[in-house]
Amino acid sequence: MKEGYDRASTNRIAELAGVSIGSLYQYFPSKEALVAAVIDRHAQQISDVTRDALVKVAARPIEVAAREFVSVAIEAHRVNPKLHGVLAEQVPRVGRLENIEANIRDSYAMVRGYLEAHRDEIEVTDLDLAAFVLVTVVEALTHAAVLRRPDILTDDKAARFVDDVTRLLVGYLRAS
Known about the structure:
The chain is mainly alpha-helical.
């Protein structure tokens, strides 16, 4: 996958994995099936990290929760940014859009649950819309930063990025 989807071959993948091509085909009948499994695993890891972060800050004020949510999203996207970029491009090709959408819906539900529990701290009234906005903003900004502007996530700039996105989220939630 380092070389991109189109240049990857099952023979090369088997070689790098140290298994025979027959063993690889026993579990993954095609390159698309292998990529689909990698997408599913990557998406589940991101979902697990997000869920754990929200559980950790469930009782914390929105400023703390928003900062943690942004920080976790950045870290999740930084795990393997090249792989993340390749997988994001291949989701429609290998038919995993439905699975990704299910993970996103789970994120909306988790964030909405947090907002419901913290209704007294926020001004927005449509919690479904607020959850959609928060998840989408964090996903879009962290995804773009990791893939297109990794310079703003260096140690000296990352804190500023987290501060700015946190202010954006909290400002939205508290705007009347």
